[in-house]
Amino acid sequence: MSAYYSFIRREQHADGSSTAYYESNIHAQGAWNPHEQHMAPATGILCAELEQFQPRAEMRIGRVGLDIFGLIAFGEFSITTRMIRPGKTIELIEAEMCANGKTCIVARAWKMLTSDTRAIAGLEDLPVESPDYLPEWDGMRCWPGGYIQSIQTRAHLDHRPGKGIVWLSNQLEMIDGQPTSDFTRLMGMVDTANGVVPRQNPNAGWGFPNLDLQIHLHRLPQGQWLGLEVVQQYGEDGIGLTSGILHDVHGPFGRSEQILTLRKF
């Protein structure tokens, strides 16, 4: 297979919502459990549905917030996308992934009216070294699962447990037989941030799965490479946080946050 997912069919509903049916393959397999999907491509397929839902040329997605309800079951699943809050300048839309009769993930996206603000534009996040000048990195091989095997990785030399910069790319389409937008491709790798600078090796007796993924975008990403400038922190009462600055080859484009539940195996 040259894609993470196969499309089955789509249903349009009288209330304006739509339900798409998909099936995952080995490339979408998770790292914590061989019978689940990895949150990274699951985020990508949800973002593909959000991006395609009632598009308006003058608006774009500025934030995607995803909450993980439980195990993201491998195999067949559905995504129902609906309008939550329509508007002229802002809209809130929702995509719900379900499998085996249960909700797996709920993703909500704010779509925002765009305008020319070049006269006041300014960033504090700084660009990082291009992946073109970095060596290949095999540090992700401590993780199992088909998704991890599907990505290419390069890392800055100062990478260490808890902090570092890693670039990711992949050659797969998100949906078999359909072209993948840069937005969907890069959003489909953001969740990997939780595994690129782990404070604990995943085989060392501790788990640190995330319960959510929050992505804020001050511009839309471009290209094939996603840069993750990540800090991972563990608290003293079983809760941690993975925070990332998101880059493409043109510079920083947003930030991500993931809340973690720390569990001893």
Automatic annotation (TrEMBL):
Domain spans labelled Acyl-CoA thioesterase-like C-terminal: 136-260
Describe the location of the Acyl-CoA thioesterase-like N-terminal HotDog domain by residue ranges.
30-111
Q: Which residues form a coiled coil?
A: none
Extract the Pfam families matched here: 4HBT_3, 4HBT_3C
Superkingdom per UniProt: Bacteria
Name recorded for this polypeptide: Thioesterase
